Amino acid sequence: MILETVVVGPLQVNCYLVACELTREAAVIDPGDDVELILAALEKAGLKVVCIINTHEHFDHVGGNKRMQEVTGAKIMAHRACAAEVTRISSRALLWGMRAEDSPPVDRLLEDGDEIKIGQSVVLRVMSTPGHSLGSISLVGPGVVFVGDLIFAGSIGRTDFPGGDYETLIRSVREKIFPLGDETVLYSGHGPATTVGRERSSNPFFV
Q: Can you give the pTM of this predicted structure?
């Protein structure tokens, strides 16, 4: 599996490029902004985008959907619970004094347990992990999980936005993320990567 990170936008979102080594086909996870930077990284790596996946509906994670789809023709995927919200993020961005384009409609509505195949060698399994938002998902690959804003190195995602809930988030981490094993690498929506073991033993929200 090929994995690259492009940090985008004023809120420093981690946009992940996940690709098959055999076919060079790639998924773009959370293209929140700076689409030209993402496209340049894709071109440099020789990757072809086949899908755009949003871990949740917040504008800093989906603000580049429209431009990315216009350029690549890739299908947009997001959880059913947030599909409507991604198409009206511009008003949310304005509340932060920022601008973001509304996303085109979601092409594939994801559910817990779905699988997303990328090329011939990569499969990401969808886990519904609400708490930061109602439609938050995590994407499980070989030894890795892309967790969006569910959990960060030493912290957790905010739960004071619409659809957020603290107890639900804690339960999602304990019941869905921690059982994946201490060596599993967590790639968050912001900040550095971490591991299940590190967060289980030192994250103040869980010790």
A: 0.97
